[in-house]
Design goal:
Blueprint: H1 20-39, H2 41-69, H3 76-95, H4 97-125, H5 131-150, H6 159-179
Length: about 190
Amino acid sequence: MTTYDHSAPMGATGLPQPSRWVCVLLGLFMVFTGLMVLGDVAFFTVISALFIGWMAIATGAFEIFHAFWTKGWGGFVWQVVLGVLYIAFGIVLISQPLTGALLLTYALGVALLVSGIVRMLIGIGRWQQGGGIMLASGLFGVLAGLVILTGFPMTGLWVLGMLLGIDLLSHGIGWLTFAWRPVAAAT
């Protein structure tokens, strides 16, 4: 005879879902940190640049380690060069976080502008298949890129921190919403 434990409902991944109080606690913590970040976006822009710098150094070191570990795969020189570039980029971000934040913000503005233009062209080209949503998404990307680039370098002082704060705030609200989900009845 087989028995099943229905005490922890399983999600789509097959893993037990977190309890309601864990979701509420995580949500409240993320909302709190999001509001803290939004309270001083310039400070957290610098913190973000430092964090990205350390992650770039770790990634570069792993890339170089991987190149020596898998020598027979080809592309050894390119992997080492890429690793060195990651490390150099990380060192620049750590040694001059304000300049690094400006570089990251400029790159973000260009990326948003270019990807927005591409999405707009795809939306226009696929208009009959519901391309209006893609066109609107592209227009938003272009506008966000232009806001960042036309206000540069001043936007470099607040954009990364603002995006981090909004992300934390929305993530926290998502966890709180998840906590308020109806509990499935055990059968």
